[in-house]
Each structure stands twice: as C-alpha cells, then as structure tokens.
Amino acid sequence: MSFDTRAFRNALGRFPTGVVVVTAGAEAPHMGITVNSFASVSLEPPLVLWCMDRRSGRYETFTNSANFTVSVLSHSHREVSARLATPGEHSLEGLALKTTECGVPVLADALAVFECAREAVHDGGDHAIIVGRVLRFCSREDGGPLVFYRGGYRTLAE
Length: 158
Prior knowledge:
The chain is mainly beta and 158 residues long. It has helices at 5-12, 59-64, 78-85; strands at 17-18, 20-24, 31-35, 39-42, 47-53, 67-72, 97-99, 105-107, 112-124, 127-139, 146-149, 152-155. It has three helices and twelve strands; from the N terminus they run αβββββαβαββββββ. The model has no long low-confidence stretch (mean pLDDT 91).
C-alpha cells in the first residue's frame, strides 16, 4: 500500500489554522517566517509550540535562537504573511516593528504577541517542534484573524 502525501496534505488543509509570524535574532539581522503550526501547549508553565521545516535555510537560526517572538496576524497582514512564507531571504526590513525586552522584534500591529524563551526542540519527522516558554504577551481586542484553509488565506465571518 502506498501513501499519497499530496492527498494527505490536501486532507490536512481541510483544518483551518491561524497564521503567525515568528521572528528570531536578538542581534541584527532579524529574521521572520510565516507559520500556521502555532499552538498552545500548557498554561502552567506557559508554553507554546510551532514547527520548522528541517530543509529551510532558516532552520539553524530558529532552532538555535535563545528567544523568539510570535505575532498573531490579522486579515490585513496577507502581504506580510506571503512575503515571509516563501523561500529566500526573510528580512523584516520595511515592516512596522516593535522591539521586545529580549531584543527580538514583533509586528507593531499584531493581534497578539508572545515573547518566548526556547524551552525545547523535539524531533518531528521532516520538521522540528520548537517549544517556547512565554515570558511576556499582549493582545488587542479589535481586528479579525488571518486564517489559512485549503491552501489559501481566508477571513472569519462574524
């Protein structure tokens, strides 16, 4: 029996996910990546996770960074998400940013921000599972999330 990875990916695409930008690099140059594998892990202690493709040119930067930030994207962030989702250089130049206490920038207008210390990196097949301890966070009440579903960006209907 063969396993159809394209059909598997399509089936997974039936599960809508939020979209975030993870940033790393306390010292310039800062780097960002679009992620839809972000999830909460624990409230006590406060832990979150996200997954990083081992084949990415950014793999070493993100798996070795002591700190990273997560910016939850709003529906107005489609262009930012698309820019940081493609292979290549992932500079944050030209984006509206705020600097966090750990020195890693976040998107200034994100729906929520999580400033994290790397807690663990686990094997996850062709990806690494990066767990972060949330040190600080903030969120805003206005704005709708950017959602990824069936291979494309969507918004939520109220």
